[in-house]
Design goal:
This protein is mostly helical. It is built from nine helices and no strands. The protein has two domains: 15-102; 109-211, no CATH class. The radius of gyration is 21 Å and the shape is flat.
Length: 213
């Protein structure tokens, strides 16, 4: 995860590739700030004032300012990039997220374990059911290495919110139904997901920290 201003980073061969790279950086930096505030890991007041003044005080302002800067700086050039000023500010925001959200020195062990389990369970699920990622059933016939790369790319591209939404869809809804049916009938049924596919024989869900009140 190199800085935008790092000249050692690989350069895309096409303008489309460069636009995709810079758009990805704009999206994930800003959405990660939003997700971190929503999750209570940081507050709006924690964001450095100099960055708020440079980039914008709200989620939409930051994205708008970054996009406008890219358009203005790239106009008339055979390049798609941010101005040095905006690029440096964006890298400082990324460093703030590294220090306070991605790699904090005192990250709660329980929260880290939950995040790791969500990612691991999603990876295992999509390795078994790759068609559930995007509906592409061709992945069912893919070699294990190719399937693993597709799954890794899919999971790595998830925002926190999207990952939790997928986790709930594939595991927790079935678990809550399993618990309610057990309380009503006294006999645990064969657990299935909402799409009717039986869940593995291991405890359902493997992340029971979310399924219990």
């Amino acid at each position: 995860m190199r800085d935008l201003a790092d000249d050692r980073r690989p350069r895309s061969a096409t303008l489309e590739g460069r636009a995709l790279r810079i758009s990805d950086r704009v999206a994930y930096v800003n959405h990660d700030v939003d997700d971190a505030v929503r999750a209570g890991l940081i507050t709006q007041a924690d964001l450095p004032l100099d960055l708020l003044a440079e980039l914008g005080s709200t989620h939409s302002e930051r994205i708008a300012n970054m996009v406008c800067d890219i358009v203005e700086f790239s106009e008339g050039k055979a390049e798609v990039d941010m101005s040095p000023r905006m690029s440096a500010a964006t890298d400082r925001l990324k460093q703030f997220l590294l220090d306070r959200v991605y790699l904090p020195e005192k990250a709660p062990d329980s929260e880290l374990a939950k995040a790791q389990r969500v990612v691991l369970d999603l990876y295992r699920f999509y390795m078994e059911h790759p068609e559930k990622m995007t509906g592409d059933r061709r992945l069912l016939e893919a070699e294990p290495a190719a399937r693993a790369k597709a799954v890794c790319d899919f999971v790595a591209g998830m925002t926190d919110r999207f990952a939790l939404t997928r986790f709930v869809r594939h595991f927790l809804r079935a678990a809550f139904g399993w618990i309610r049916n057990t309380e009503t009938t006294g006999t645990p049924p064969v657990p299935v997901r909402t799409d009717g596919v039986p869940l593995p024989s291991r405890p359902v869900p493997s992340c029971q920290w979310e399924a219990t009140p």
